[in-house]
Amino acid sequence: MGVRAETERATGEAILSAALGAFSRDLFDRVTLQSIADASGVTVQTVIRRFGSKEHLFAVLAERETPRILASREAPDGSDLSAALEILIDHYETDGETILNFVRQEHLFEPIRKIVEQGRRIHCEWVERYCREILDRTSGVNRARLLNAAIAATDLGTWKLLRRDRGLEQSEVLAVMHELLHGLRRK
Question: Is 165 exposed, middle or buried (0-12, 13-18, 19+ CB in 10 A)?
């Protein structure tokens, strides 16, 4: 790779990193191309030349981050619920605040709404995969009720309640979620 190409790549990465920080912290409407340019050490014109608009920059960033986020919450094949739950909580520790920021504004910006909806589907699939032992003991309405209970027990909102609102340590959040899921096994 030539020097110019490497510089262009590094500039694009700097802009995307600055955008990730801005979109993670602030409401979409409050993020400006100027603030992203300032944080990445380039001009607004450079950001516009590379990404066109704030909306397109957000779309490129979402496309880049989605595979990383998906990978960060997946447990290795053959993992049991305990191992998978530990990985899920690590994911919440890393990306939880960003996701909560998106959830707060899902009704304001269509691309954020789509990302939040995708996240909900992904979490439901995670529960279906790792909570099979709980879910497969029943069917119909009872299974649907257990699925919803397991989703709630392992949801980002539950993590926020326990970790941020109640001030529990990460290990205690894990223990509480285990206890909630263990209670579902008794149903």
Answer: exposed
- Six-digit token pair at 168? 């529990």
In the CATH scheme, what is the homologous superfamily, with its name and number, of domain 3-60? Homeodomain-like (1.10.10.60)
In degrees to the nearest 10, what's the CA dihedral of 103, 108, 112, 115? 60
Express each pLDDT in 1-59 by its tens digit: 688 888 888 999 999 999 999 999 999 999 999 999 999 999 999 999 999 999 999 99
d(CA 27, CA 17): 17
Give the pLDDT of residue 1: 64
Q: Angle between the 110-130 and 54-72 helix axes, to the nearest 10 degrees?
A: 10
Would you list the domain boundaries of the chain?
Answer: 3-60, 73-185
